[in-house]
Amino acid sequence: MVNYPHQVSRKRIDTSGKSESRQVNFANRGMTFETAINDSNQYYLAHGKAVIHKKPTPVQIVKVDYPKRSRAKIVEAYFRHASTTDYSGVFKGYYIDFEAKETRQKTAMPMKNFHAHQIEHMEQVLQQRGIAFVLLHFSTLKETYLLPAQALIDFYQIDQGGKSMPIDYIRQKGFEIIMGGFPSLPYLDVVEKKLLGGDNFEK
Amino acid sequence: MVNYPHQVSRKRIDTSGKSESRQVNFANRGMTFETAINDSNQYYLAHGKAVIHKKPTPVQIVKVDYPKRSRAKIVEAYFRHASTTDYSGVFKGYYIDFEAKETRQKTAMPMKNFHAHQIEHMEQVLQQRGIAFVLLHFSTLKETYLLPAQALIDFYQIDQGGKSMPIDYIRQKGFEIIMGGFPSLPYLDVVEKKLLGGDNFEK
């Protein structure tokens, strides 16, 4: 990736989801975006509505110690890039697959949040008739959208690498998730009403 | 778990999948059972037939070092028990979810291979109309079976903890996977012909 000068200053603003999520309260409940998703999945599971889990963080394990009378201890390992999306599961017989991203920006979602292999994975899922999408959280605006994977793929093919997806495009092609009830992020309502309806994957 | 005397000697025989899989050739191609599954999933993916991945090993990360000019290094972490099954994905619109286990025993699969939360997870998947099963490999016999999750759950409820599932039960309720072609473990043939047919989940 080439770093153009104007991107250097931008980097301070759109920090990646992980570091940012620790600082931003979600929906005024003291939750981060990721916590809100996991909390909602827990709610769906407990109510028998869906079985959706976050995949474990992929780690490349290099060295493991086996201390006597103690459990195995990993002493050297590195984070790997995920080859798929973060969340998957089953809802009413449908395969559900999504990635979650957040930004502090008010007008766009930086496309560097999405890796080529994740885009490719979502294409493969759609080919198998799975339900794939991204959850996009604008923490400053306190707005969250479900964007069908096809809209992300379409934009990615036009605007590969480095740039941003305007919030207007997201509002046009995606669906806002209204927060404040239970679960805190009722994204399956949108899946059920919008993606599983007759206008499958198209708004 | 109580260790009865007669189980101590048994432990030498039915070692867990991971240590055993390194030593046993699979289907005379120099593959382990896990390699054969991953290889088959790769084949299915490359041929546009299914999108099924192994989940990353769950690791509890305790301490990470951030050396200057170098990538983050995990210096203390521990293996966690998986709360779900190892493999999941989508095949022709169906949610696929399975666990793979192997044994050197010739007459039974030790039930200690299955944890209560994995059984519970499979029940939840079935309730959401997902396709759930286990792949059972008898390395000494060189036989592999696909056993629908319901048959495992039924057996588990009768025989909780410690004992073994007889191979006769597996042969009666499951389906043998015939090896030797491409992919090396064509388990989706069985899924398509037996689980997605009219006699859904019942033999």
Describe the structure.
The structure is a homodimer of 203-residue chains. Chain A is an alpha+beta fold and 203 residues long. Chain A has one domain (5-56, 82-195): Trna Endonuclease, Chain: A, domain 1, CATH 3.40.1350. The first copy, chain A, is 32% helix and 27% strand. Chain A contains seven helices and ten strands. Chain A has helices at residues 5-11, 17-21, 33-46, 116-127, 149-158, 167-173, 187-195; strands at 51-54, 59-65, 73-79, 87-91, 94-103, 108-110, 131-138, 143-148, 164-166, 175-176. A six-stranded mixed sheet of chain A has the order 1-4-5-7-8-10, sandwiched between helices. The first copy, chain A, has a two-stranded antiparallel ribbon with strand order 2-3. In chain A, strands 6-9 form a two-stranded antiparallel sheet. The longest helix of chain A has 14 residues, at 33-46. Chain A is globular, with a radius of gyration of 18 Å. The first copy, chain A, starts with a helix and ends in an 8-residue tail after the last helix. The relative contact order of chain A is 0.15. Residues 1-24 and 198-203 of chain A have low confidence and may be disordered. At the A-B interface, β3, β4, β5 and α4 of A face β3, β4, β5 and α4 of B.
